[in-house]
Amino acid sequence: QRDIKANDSEYNGTFNYAVNKIKTSKYTWYNFLLINLWEQFHRVVNVYFVILVVLQFIPEISSLNPTTSIIPIIVVLGLTAMKDGFYDYKRHKSDSSVNNRSSSVVKDETLTEEKWMNIKVGDIIQLKNNENVTVSCTLRNTEWCFGLVIFAGPDTKLMQNTGKSVLKRTSIERLMNKLVWLIFAFLLLLATVTAVGNTIWERYVGVHFQVYMPWASYAPNEYMSGFLMFWSYIIILNTVVPISLFVSIEFIRVGQSWFINFDRAMYYEKKDLPALARTTTLNEELGQIEYVFSDKTGTLTQNIMEFNKCVIGGTCYGEVYNEDGIAIVPDDSTPNADFSFNKDAENSFRFFDQRLINAITSGDTKVHEFFKLIAICHTVMPDFSPEGILTYQAQSPDEGALVGAARNFGFVFKERTFNTITVSELGTDVTYEVLAILDFDNVRKRMSVIVKDPEGNITLFCKGADSVIYERLGEATDEDIKNATTVHLDNFAGEGLRTLCLAVKRLNEESYKVWKEAHSKASMALEDREDRLSAVYEEIERDMELLGATAVEDKLQDGVPETIANLSNANIKIWVLTGDKQETAVNIGYSCNMLTEEMKNVFIISGYTFEEKWLLVQLADNLLKNVFYVFFQVESEIKQAYEDMQCEDSPRSVLSSRDDLTPVFANGRSIVFQQDGENKFGLVINGHSLVHALSEELAIKFLELATLCTAVICCRVTPLQKAKVVELVKQNQKAVTLAIGDGANDVSMIKAAHIGVGISGEEGTQAVLSADFAFGQFRFLERLLLVHGRWSYMRICKFFGYFFYKNFAFTLVHFWYSFFNGLTAQSSFDDWFVTLYNLVYTSMPVFMLAVFDQDLNDEYCIKFPKLYLPGQTNELFNIKIFFRSIIRGIFTSLALFFIPYGAFVDGMHSDGTNITDLQTLSIVISTSLIIVVTLQVALDTSYWTPINHFFIWGSIGIYFLVTFAMYSNGFLNPLKKICTGVARTAFQFPSLWFTVLLVSAICFLPVVASRYLTSLLWPTYTEKVKAHKAKQRKMKAAESLHAMSEKIKSKFQIKRRGSRARSGYAFSHERGFGDLITTGRMSMRRNNSQRQSQNN
Predict the structure, then answer these.
(1) pLDDT for res 639
(2) Minimal CA–CA distance to 562: which of 591, 587, 584, 583?
(3) What phi-psi label fits residue 571: left (phi over 0), alpha (psi between -120 and 50 degrees) or beta?
(4) What transmembrane ranges does the database entry give (predicted)?
């Protein structure tokens, strides 16, 4: 409740209501640095490296210059801040475009232009036709109106419902967080080993050096020395914990997201909708999806409804027959029905059954009442264009299609006020008084309108799902009409049409007044208002008379069957969660290849009680687990179960399947199964059954049953049930889930899934605004998962494996060197190399690998969907792969240190001088390291681009350039430790290059050999496809070469004589062209090809 005075800013200001300014940005120019650093230091890794920087300023424990950690942490924090600032700047621009939007506000009895952000609670604003009030809310059906601002800014329903998005993390990222802690534990272990080793060395070896190398005053004994060495080795081995890992991942994901955004193959040209990655943190998760939960209407279908058929009084209209009386599917050549009787009919409207037109023009009362109900029972708003053309603004495409159909059949909805509705009935305008609107919701699944006609008759018109309408029919409905309508409804649903039943009830004045009084009390109740209104609605929506049913067609989107088939081949289980009736959902399941004729069983579950649900789930589970279940065993168990439950009188089927299945038991219900076909199963369950299936007692059992099925369809479900189904799978299955939808009723499941995908459709933008990814058509999901998802997963896995490998290879060189310097924390490399190793020398090659690499192109990724399977089973990066990378890094570090050490420890110049010194050894090791790890990333690269070439070979060139500059004679020598001229001298040693070659060979031969043998003896599916691709390429090359050689032969062919004997005639033996020449009939010169053909 709010206390507001219109246009009284002074009075309204006393309540401190929120202003209308929206703010989705996080930073301002003055607090950006402070807040961003505060957020970044919530990461444990960043705090860890700041502590390292502090430790390096303690001279007693630091053997490295503090710049080795200061520069990397500054670069990492700076790059992250730049990224955060860039995206926040975009949010600032978005906020500014909304806040600075102009609006007309009433001030001092005049209209003045005011910025949207300056509008306050209590202001009166003018809204104009087609002007957006908020997102997905537009003023219709009037040129202008005035509105009083009640809520503004963050208090509005839109902003309240927006809330904070749940932070989603990928499974690889969660694994990475655990591995970082494991690496940190390994670092502590190494530091402990070296500290203990230093203590032992100082006690038994170092004591002999006391004469000329006494202990420092701050380390008077070996124990204190060991303690200080622990912290020294924490510093010197800190690179084993990768500081640039997480910032590199963020920028890699940004690059991968750009590829999604700019993918022309995912651009929906019809609506000018490109694909959009609304988050940059979930790309690799797209390559690990196992479950897809999809809405049907507008997601699998076009959500563009067309009135197709109807049944009125048991008679079906809309079928098309040929001259032989056989039903056919209409096409463009099929003649349309004659709508010339109706001047308001649209030329684009298609209906082929002339019988319905004849019934209307002949005055059939049932048909008239049928279309009168359609024209009255709705919430559609009429709108006239500037040219005077009548259009409709419908809340849902179904209502728009139905009201449009009524218009074309002569019942034109023309005008609506708050208490009247005007319909032109075959050219005569009739105004009805609207007494009550009993609106539709997902629980009621119906809507009703109570009207009074000009004669004073009160009528209730109702439309809704067949299941709820049939339950409320009275004795006035003829059983034959009811049964005939049921048959036609089943036929409509079998064709995949969306159906609604229509019913009517005549009311007298007295009964209506009694009901109206109860309705008024319920609508004004302060507590349980919704429940009381529902009870009042139930009182009047009973004993109705069935008029008929409508069938509206919602065609599948382009490419849906192919997409679902390909995703299924990729071992992705697809669940459709829809509000449509069971038969429609099943038919759509078959038409879009979710359900196939090859499936072993398609179980259809429709139990209404908990006991029924428990029985059918148990039986279906048994059938699935034992496909050769003996018939009489099933029969006896079912009979005994029903006898125990004493529920033989139930009229509903609890478990049924396709019409070709054999019934096992029938006593008012049926339980059937089939044992033919492949070992694939489908499951269909309705909303009534789902209520019990999601209960605590049955949820796990239902999940076990559902996960054994290839396809699952949940029909007549509510938005809340959609979210619960997703949560059930997400919480109990170790699988990555994706939810895709296009409307507001899909938002809950989109947010519940690991990844949410929104389709920009006919139902607004709510789904897109709540999603992680968005595009225009369902078929693009195939490319998003099988191409971009697979590539992103493969790239990030390569990145992680290589990153740990190169860091362990680099860091452990210090550890091996410690056994030759008394474990005194001496660095194997100069400080600048330590600083630049991760930032410059090795960062860009692997970054480009993680952004551009493709083991197979997009065509093969889609053509061979089983390539997607490694992501689902975490084959490319897991604990095993992690330890394999670590072991390779350890082996490489051993080769990097001990081979150069063995080669140079007793080395001498040609003049007999010693060449063994730490700086030379450091250059040999560092050169070997850079070449080895760079060649490794080259070996891992499958798809070479000019960018990859530039950064891979350029990183080696940068290393030599920087090294020469650092060790040059005064050119750049900021560190006192560097010895001038060492690099130039070292690179002149042939032994250095031989050592580098030897180290590279020893490091690479095992890798190349193991990869070759593995691909030869135990090839993966990916390697088989690569071999197939290479074979195809060779065949095409051979065919092209053969075609080129044939072309060359034909062009330079030399004509040979068959015999050396001369012919007896100098002219052709055939008749010549003399007659043609002399008669003038051949006046044009014949070309060479014609002459050649004649000669041949």
Answers:
(1) 37
(2) 591
(3) left
(4) 41-58, 64-82, 179-201, 230-252, 799-820, 832-852, 881-901, 921-939, 951-972, 992-1014
In the chain, domain spans: 9-162, 171-247+785-1026, 267-304+557-597+710-778, 306-507+543-553, 600-707
Smallest Cα–Cα separation from 193: which of 819, 919, 889, 663?
Answer: 819
pLDDT score of 383 more than 50: yes
387 vs 937, more confident: 937
Q: Name the architecture of domain 267-304+557-597+710-778.
A: 3-Layer(aba) Sandwich (3.40)
Distance CA(602)–CA(596), nearest Å, equals 9
At 478, which helix (H) or strand (E)?
A: none
Please determine, for residue 646, whether its predicted confidence score (pLDDT) is greater than 50.
Answer: no
Per mean pLDDT, which range of 56-60, 696-700, 1058-1062 is the poorest? 1058-1062
CA dihedral 1011, 1017, 1022, 1025 (to 10 degrees): 120
Reply yes or no on whether 295 is catalytic: yes
Contacting residues for 181 by C-beta, under 8 A, at least 6 apart? none
Tell whether residue 800 is among the known ligand binding residues. no
Confidence grade of residue 460 (pLDDT, cut at 50, 70, 90): very high
CATH superfamily of the 306-507+543-553 domain:
Calcium-transporting ATPase, cytoplasmic domain N (3.40.1110.10)
Give kind and range of the element (H or E) at residue 13: helix 9-13
Does the annotation list 716 as a binding residue? yes
Instruction: Count other C-beta atoms under 10 Å from residue 834's C-beta.
Output: 25
Can you spell out the DSSP letters for 219-274? --SHHHHHHHHHHHHHHHTGGGS-TTHHHHHHHHHHHHHHHHHT-GGG-BGGGTB-
Q: What residues have CB less than 8 Å from 762, skipping those under 6 apart?
A: 298, 303, 304, 397, 742
Residue among 295, 398, 772, 830 flagged as catalytic = 295
Instruction: List pLDDT tens digits, range 516-566.
Output: 999 999 988 888 888 888 899 999 999 999 999 999 887 888 889 899 989
Q: Is 745 annotated as a binding residue?
A: yes
The mean pLDDT of 250-259, rounded to a whole number, is 91
Angle 854-560-558 (CA atoms, 0-180°, nearest 5)? 100
> Is 625 among the annotated ligand-binding positions?
no
1046 has a pLDDT exceeding 90: no
Question: What is the pTM assigned to this prediction?
Answer: 0.76
Residue 463 is labelled as binding a ligand:
yes
- pLDDT tens, residue by residue, 140-164: 667 788 888 888 877 776 566 444 5
Residue 1090 has pLDDT above 80, yes or no: no
Cβ(841)–Cβ(958) below 8 Å: yes
